[in-house]
Specification:
Number of strands: 14
Number of helices: 13
Helix content: 25-40%
Shape: globular
């Protein structure tokens, strides 16, 4: 990994937040014959759902991205992973011999086109694991049952509100070894999930120290990760989060890619047992203490620029002409924490900050 030149790996034609199969299909045309591309099903609106298979080894790893259509960062990362696997190098050859990877880059094509969490029937696919009411849910179940993976990687994005523990560091990457029962016991498959996460965290702490969190492990049988864990398949939830000044998440994609590659290498070399449950549990749980913009106004009564001492602003993501626009809106965290952090903090006693608020038409929003 030390010699990895990411600039040569990254696929520059796939960037930003709005990613659908139009973008991915162009890249898939560049893959050599060592990658098997199949249509594994159709969406509600009859768009093809594709899988890409690489390698022939006994360690079978299934991964899928954009189960939620507006969560595209991990799709960029899996495209970069495939770009890496195109190389004629020893590491790739070893992965090919020891692992078989099956990648579904976009599970919800309609949601991806609409840039929505839900599919065309307005159903959250990650709450459909038991009912299987949607064609996309049934596609994933069929692929899972036919492929019989040894590991599942469930790839998502998370909101910018998350911090690590109670610190002021954003949760740039979060992981979860999903529960398999209400008591959140540690089954053999969940143990393996925890150990593999510990291996990936070990790598990421060298890249983004203190910016890896652990997602809430409340049990929900309707969630795909919990459902697969119930079926004794080690399953890992990835959550791509915020990195400083990276609303396009083209920096976060790098860390997801490196985590994926680290996990695959650890599996391929049978090193999962080198890591422990305790290492996983040492990852701090996510807090919800961030807002996109925090406006501080100690003199709000006197200057009347704002209605309170602290004003919280969150961006609403809106698809506009093929690009995602970030629209600022007043916001209140679900549960008011002891301390609130801003990805951008502005002080009404600072002339430059006031100028920024004016130039970005936020003063009117605050008053």
């Amino acid at each position: 990994m030390k010699d990895l030149d990411y600039n040569k790996i990254m696929v520059p034609t796939i960037s930003g937040r709005y990613i659908n199969y139009d973008h991915v299909n162009e890249f898939l045309k560049t893959l050599p014959a060592t990658f098997k591309i199949e249509v594994v099903g159709k969406s509600v609106r009859n768009e093809s759902i594709k899988s890409i298979t690489f390698g022939s080894g006994p360690n079978k790893i299934l991964m899928w991205s954009q189960m939620h259509g507006n969560e595209s960062t991990t799709t960029k990362a899996v495209v970069d992973l495939m770009s890496y696997l195109k190389q004629d190098i020893v590491d790739v050859s070893e992965i090919s011999k020891s692992c078989t990877l099956k990648i579904i880059p976009i599970l919800s094509p309609d949601g991806a086109r609409n840039y929505t969490r839900v599919n065309a029937n307005k159903i959250d696919l990650n709450r459909d694991a038991q009912d299987l009411s949607q064609p996309e849910s049934r596609v994933l179940k069929t692929v899972y049952e036919e492929f019989k993976p040894n590991y599942c990687l469930n790839l998502h994005d998370q909101r910018t509100i998350f911090n690590v523990g109670e610190t002021s560091k954003p949760a740039t990457v979060s992981f979860l070894a999903p529960a398999f029962d209400k008591d959140r016991n540690i089954s053999p498959s969940r143990k393996l999930s925890m150990q593999l996460i510990a291996a990936m965290n070990n790598k990421l702490q060298k890249e983004i120290p203190g910016q890896v969190g652990r997602y809430d492990d409340g049990f929900n049988a309707n969630c795909v990760g919990d459902a697969f864990q119930m079926r004794k398949t080690p399953t890992i939830l990835f959550e791509a989060g915020h990195y400083t000044d990276d609303y396009d998440r083209d920096k976060t994609r790098v860390f997801i890619f490196k985590a994926l590659l680290q996990g695959i290498k650890v599996i391929s070399k049978n090193l999962v047992s080198d890591y422990t449950i305790e290492q996983y549990l040492s990852i701090p749980e996510n807090g919800k203490q961030f807002v996109d913009i925090l406006v501080v106004n100690d003199n709000f009564i006197k200057n009347q620029l704002t209605k309170s001492e602290l004003v919280q602003i969150q961006y609403k993501e809106v698809l506009n002409k093929g690009k995602v626009a970030f629209i600022p809106e007043l916001y209140h965290l679900e549960k008011q924490p002891s301390e609130i952090f801003g990805h951008k903090t502005l002080n009404c006693n600072d002339e430059n900050d006031i100028l920024w608020l004016k130039e970005n038409d936020l003063l009117q929003l605050l008053s």
